[in-house]
Design brief:
The chain is an alpha/beta fold. It is built from nine helices and eleven strands. Helix 2 packs antiparallel against helix 3. It is globular and about 50 Å long.
Length: 281
């Protein structure tokens, strides 16, 4: 029974992915490809006729167009380039741009597919299917502090959330980003601008190569305890019945997510307040 059940599920998934879902894809084009750091590129997409995205989606009027128009910061989509294999294959990537804005994705060329992506010229057609995923805080009570813990390219959903003006007005945000060295820093420039303006608590840790005069470090139990304590102190003006508990979001390699989930639990963060998504480097 179990074997037949898994077989039916697999068959159903295949039919959905290969026969039904492609009919809901949105046709776009690559507007711009920019290298932000060694091996890390930002891809911007737009309608093929250079029409403004909201107007284009409204004109389409399809269910998939309405879903994309209503995407939430932190969600992802499947993309297929109108090019030769392997780029014609479908792969999921998270939007790095906030909801309601242009469509952007930041990708590290760590695999065969993502490495080939940097060779895609502007103007290349793209089929985009999305948005998908529930890795976002919009359903949390307003005023809930958000603690974002990112490893490597796992920063992309947090960039989407932190750049969302409406979301940032509803929730105080702390973002800790763990990277091998300062080479990746330019990726976070929009977030650094927010931090400089006092709109985001941003902390960057270097695990292998620190800048001149700096030290290497990792996200530790002590650091998380310090962040949670600081967050609670900021909420000290609330009464006990009003005080919202922080919500912690984790995104990065599988081991990163697993280790930090364990640390958060030892710090007393309930499982219901821990949200995670695994990314590769």
């Amino acid at each position: 029974v179990v074997t037949l059940g898994w077989g039916a599920l697999t068959l159903g998934t295949y039919v959905w992915h290969k026969l039904i879902r492609p009919g809901t894809n949105i046709s776009l084009k690559v507007k711009e490809v920019t290298e932000l750091a060694p091996g890390v590129h930002r891809y911007r997409f737009s309608p093929a006729n250079d029409q403004k995205l909201p107007a284009y989606l409204e004109e389409l009027g399809t269910r998939s167009a309405r879903l994309l128009a209503g995407r939430r910061s932190g969600q992802f989509a499947y993309i297929r380039f109108q090019s030769k294999p392997p780029l014609s294959e479908e792969h999921p990537f998270t939007f790095s741009s906030p909801a309601g804005g242009d469509l952007e994705m930041i990708v590290r060329g760590s695999g065969d597919y993502s490495a080939f992506m940097s060779t895609v010229p502007p103007g290349t057609g793209v089929k985009l299917d999305g948005p998908y995923g529930k890795f976002y805080p919009q359903d949390l009570r307003e005023g809930t502090p958000l603690v974002f813990l990112a490893g490597g390219i796992g920063i992309t959903p947090f960039m989407s959330m932190a750049l969302d003006d409406q979301l940032r007005k509803k929730h105080p945000m702390t973002l800790v980003w763990s990277i091998p060295g300062p080479d990746d820093e330019p990726v976070a420039q929009p977030l650094a601008n927010l931090a400089a303006a006092g709109k985001l608590d941003l902390r960057i840790l270097y695990t292998r190569r620190a800048p001149a005069g700096g030290k290497t470090s990792r996200i530790t139990n002590d650091l998380i305890g310090e962040i949670l304590e600081s967050t609670q102190n900021e909420l000290s003006g609330h009464t006990d019945t009003q005080q919202p508990q922080p919500a912690c979001f984790l995104c990065g390699p599988g081991s990163f997510v697993k280790d930090l989930s364990g640390i958060l639990k030892t710090q007393g963060v309930p499982k219901s307040r821990i949200f995670s998504e695994s990314f590769s480097w």
